[in-house]
Amino acid sequence: MKTQATIEQQQPDGTFKPVTLDLANGYRVVTRCPDAAATVAACTSVAASGIELVAWSGMSCGGQCAQACFANVFMRGTFRLVVAACGDDSARVVGPTFEMPPDPAAIERIAASTTVTKITAMAVSLTPKWEGTDQTPGAFAGGLKVTAGSQRTLDAATQQAFVETLRAPKGYDDQVARRCLMGKLVGFRVERTLASSSGTAETATVDIAMDFTCHKIFFVRDGEGRGVHVAAATHFDPLRSPFLAIAKKALPDDAELRKITDAPPNP
Q: What are the two backbone dihedrals, phi and then psi, of residue 8, each rounded to the nearest 5 degrees?
């Protein structure tokens, strides 16, 4: 197939129209970002096992790999990826539609609440100099300490409530910056299924840590299998009450969590 693919955006009338990306270079079918001076082959082949592509961030320039950009913007709406066979532009493969939220800061929480199959709650605590970068296999949220024996799988109703709260269009402040000493932390390991170019479902894990003192939430994932942890954070003050109720239901034996009242402290 051609390595220069197309991302199309859905129009108000339901049709799809190609968007201009990376100075007309389009979306590239690559498994890693090439060196700045390297050229990308015009065509590539896909094995039966599929291909793991560099994800698109939603930006109109540098959306996959670093690039000098002018007037770069975040693109919102419904999109789909289209690839064509080498030597035959009419032989196209059209991928499923996907959404880009109104605010780019919402991407991590939207992704973490999509195609969820299982959520495990656990009590966690900070470790010295935690930055979410520990790549030890299985390390929760890149290095937070898990309280032994605290893991509990959410039942279907609680899982659905968690997903719906996570996807709430309002309730997050992605701009605020505050100095606050974090306190009680609760962790949620979210397991998801992903579509694969091979047609076989694959799995992905997102670790979410919530601090109920500073009302801060962290998202840590593995960089789509490339071994690089990706971390994002925001504040959830307006959603503290529903998240606290979910945490208490998920971890009913956590004495420290039971002491936290619904009335939020002033962080």
A: -110, 145
Residue 218 token pair? 């962290």
Q: Mind listing the pLDDT tens digit of every residue in the chain (267 residues)?
A: 888 889 999 999 999 999 988 766 678 888 887 766 667 788 888 776 667 778 888 888 888 877 777 778 889 899 999 998 888 888 888 988 988 888 888 888 888 998 899 999 999 999 988 888 887 878 899 899 999 999 999 999 999 999 999 999 888 988 877 788 889 999 999 999 876 555 566 788 899 999 999 999 999 987 655 566 778 899 999 999 999 999 999 999 999 999 998 765 555
0.85 exceeded by pTM: no
Name the DSSP letter for residue 106. G
The burial class, CB within 10 Å (0-12 / 13-18 / 19+), for 142 is buried
Q: Collapsing DSSP states into helix, strand and coil, what is residue 243?
A: helix
Judge whether 54 and 31 are in contact, CB under 8 Å: yes
- Taking each helix axis as running N to C, give the angle between helix 156-166 and helix 240-250, from 0 to 180 degrees, rounded to the nearest 10: 160
Domains of the chain: 1-100 (no CATH), 104-258 (2.60.40)
Asked if residue 55 lies in contact with residue 65, where contact means CB atoms within 8 angstroms, the answer is no
**28-63: b or e for each residue (b if 16 or more CB lie within 10 Å)?**
bbbeeeeeeeeeeeeebeeeeeeeebbebebbbbeb
Six token digits for residue 138: 């299985």
